[in-house]
Design brief:
alpha+beta, Cyclophilin, eight-stranded antiparallel β-barrel, two-stranded antiparallel ribbon, 10 strands, 22% helix, globular
């Protein structure tokens, strides 16, 4: 009778420790992340934004698929997201705070543009950040929206 309890308690302790290790992994300072030589152009209706992309396998695969026009879905009054037809390489971290203008990958195929700043406990792969997110919330609006991603010439 004591052996099953001991196994169960050991298992629960391992789960707690594993989750604690995962959530406390500090994210590197994003100002030190290498950036790609290419920039991303993001078109929303008549508005155009430029984003600086981090130099990582996620963006190498993403840029190879551009140009890309997608319908992005509203979520939580702070973001737009879409599921990409094919997954991308990932290296997820918990950013702690998401900034307006962050371009992140959730899971392996959900592309997200954030238009509000807030704290999060979720894990994302950093893709880039809009150079000037002023007007982004207005351009994206409160409903679903069509967005085009292309390499800046």
């Amino acid at each position: 009778m004591k052996r099953p309890r001991l196994l169960l308690l050991s298992f629960l302790l391992l789960l707690v420790l594993a989750e604690d290790c995962k959530s406390n992994t500090p994210e590197p300072d994003i100002s030190t992340l290498p950036i790609m030589s290419r920039q991303l152009r993001i078109r929303v209706g008549s508005d155009t934004f430029t984003a600086t992309l981090f130099d990582n396998p996620t963006n190498t695969a993403f840029v190879a698929r551009l140009p890309l026009t997608v319908s992005m879905t509203e979520l939580n009054g702070n973001e737009k997201y879409c599921d990409l037809p094919q997954g991308l390489p990932t290296s997820a971290v918990n950013p702690g705070t998401i900034q307006a203008g962050d371009l992140l990958l959730y899971g392996f195929n959900t592309l997200v543009i954030f238009y509000e700043t807030f704290s999060t406990s979720y894990r994302y792969t950093r893709m880039g950040r809009l150079d000037n997110p002023a007007g982004l919330a207005t351009a994206l609006g409160r409903g679903n929206v069509t967005v085009t991603f292309e390499v800046q010439p």
